[in-house]
Amino acid sequence: MKIISLCLCALMMPLLLVAQQVKSPNGNVVVSFSLVDNGVPTYQVSYKGKPVIKQSRLGLELTPSNNDGIKPEDTNLMNGFKVSNTETSSFKEVWKPVWGETSSILNHYNEMAVSLTQEHPNRTIIVRFRVYNDGMGLRYEFPRQSNLGYFIIKDEHTQFAMAGDHTAWWLPGDYDTQEYETVTSKLSEIRSKMKAAVTDNTSQTTFSETGVQTSLQMKSSDGLYINLHEAACVNYPTMHLNLDDKNMVFESWLTPDAQGNKAYMQAPRTTPWRTLIVSDDARDMLSSNLILNLNEPCQYDDTSWIKPVKYCGVWWEMIVGRKSWSYTDEFPAVEIGVTDFSKAKPNGRHGATTAEVKRYIDFAAKNGLDQVLVEGWNIGWEDWFGHSKFKVFDFQTPYPDFDIKALNEYAHSKGVKLMMHHETSASVMNYERYMEDAYKLMNKYGYNSVKSGYVGNIIPRGEHHYGQVMNNHYLHAVTEAAKHKIMVNAHEATRPTGLCRTYPNLIGNESARGTEYEAFGGSNPDHTVILPFTRLQGGPMDYTPGIFETQLKNWSSNQSYVHTTLAGQLALYLVMYSPLQMAADLPEHYEKYNDAFQFIKDVAVDWDDSKYIEAEPGDYITVARKAKGTDNWFIGGKCDENGHKAVIKLDFLDKGKTYECTIYSDAADADYEKNPKAYSIIRKQVKRGDVLKINEARGGGFGVSLLVKK
Ligand code: NOJ
Ligand code: CA
User: Which residues are in the Glycosyl-hydrolase 97 N-terminal domain (predicted)?
Assistant: First the structure.
């Protein structure tokens, strides 16, 4: 259904004076647009009559450019506008994601597109608003026109004026990393807490004492949950938010390129959507599909090759420090095509050996896991990091002790696939040079997924992980992979903005502190009850859960520990939604706790339905999900350092069916610090309407499987 009604020119003059409004289908969200003062575009948003975004300015500033015909006096797209046209319409459809939390998604909004025209020079931009029951998106559009063809955006000045000093769950704004611990504070406290929040990272560029990243989750003192992010960030830099903390006004802050410019544009073009999700119920923030809905439909005709993946891998032992990615310690430096690895002495710690990979393949086959990730299989790891080296890897040449042909054949004979690893060391031009051959090699041996990575400062030097050039690169890697029927899971790339709807072979990203940080000193116990409100708004995270030996010193010299209980790790397969889930611990650790591992074996990675049962940012999340194509349900509950008592009414189960219910929960004396591995497993039969009450320990959680009794 698509209804378009045009407000004709005759109506235009009065429209200049009054605000123009567009409401959500249920009327709860109201967006008003008006021009003020000297033709400055502004908008405001309310939810159930409460102000959410107070009157806020819209606009952009251009870089003068002789080549593009933009004179210094023509750089302002901030004021001097008149409304030259307004169009409103409604849209309602149900679409089916290739994978997801639910098998179908309602996309229902009312839209208003306001054309704004300046006279000297004559230029028109459009501000388009889409208003949903759970929020809204707005973007700038630049139609084809003679006075605005090519142009460079110096700054985008989209403001988000907050209605109060909200509580915020924020990360320091940074052009290169999101791998920070979330800070929970009032908006007015961001400035004083910023310095301590900026912990060391391999590549980082902060920009302001009040600059934060999106997705930014907030809560007002009267109980409104407010989330700011962006959708469909294509051919544009990633947006941060800078806070004017006297007035509680955020303004967009785009990631610059090496010259300080933000975005190179050619009309017709649009910016990404700037998104607001709002509700008085925290669960709505998690079930919102607003960001996916603001992305374009799937671009691929055939998606039959895109499959959710449960995997294990030769990985955690390297992260913890017991094994190495590199093959030898003999060379202080290596050169692709010159260094002869066949004569090098192995260091004895290399993880990706043929024998070790076989052991993982056997483990995956025995336990029904789809894939085995192998890192450190290819030459170049001896000096891959810290030297701003251009030609680091060729993504094609295995170390002498990794038999790529035999291992793939062995895996395939057991119904398992290997997962490719492309660490680029952020040398992006080098990666693009080899990309086609690297994907061809994957096709040759039967790999269908790649984990890529961008550790370190970007080459070309001066560019940032979240700039326009890099955002184009990440998408290029995904669309080129699609030509080879390859799925992509990119680490250290920009944080997602829902592009997985359009390009569903983007099955995962990192772009936040993953489980690896539990080996680098740990993440706070509330980390995974914040991420679903923030990082996961734009798309799934390859969080790599499932660590059972939470005290790393029990089996390595690493003194860190995982800041959850063992049962809490099980919860992450539900709470941290992803079509790509790792069983990240070592096979021998799973064998030791085989009864708890049963949950990881059973849990699905693709869903027909999801019900958020309880949620509060930073405190707890409880979610039930129905496994795709079955009548089976799984429930996960995770909490912070304070523990939680989950109450789950099983009113979503099918009437008349009996379910075999297995509850994997924290034992009464469990505690993420003192007694992390104390868990209990209870089995019983349940039916619709029954209630489960489950205690979660400090830093704990639980997993429940509900399998229909045949
Ligand atoms: C960082 C990634 O997050 C991690 O998973 C990977 O093992 C290393 N880079 C090496 O590529
Ligand atoms: Ca990382």
Answer: 22-297
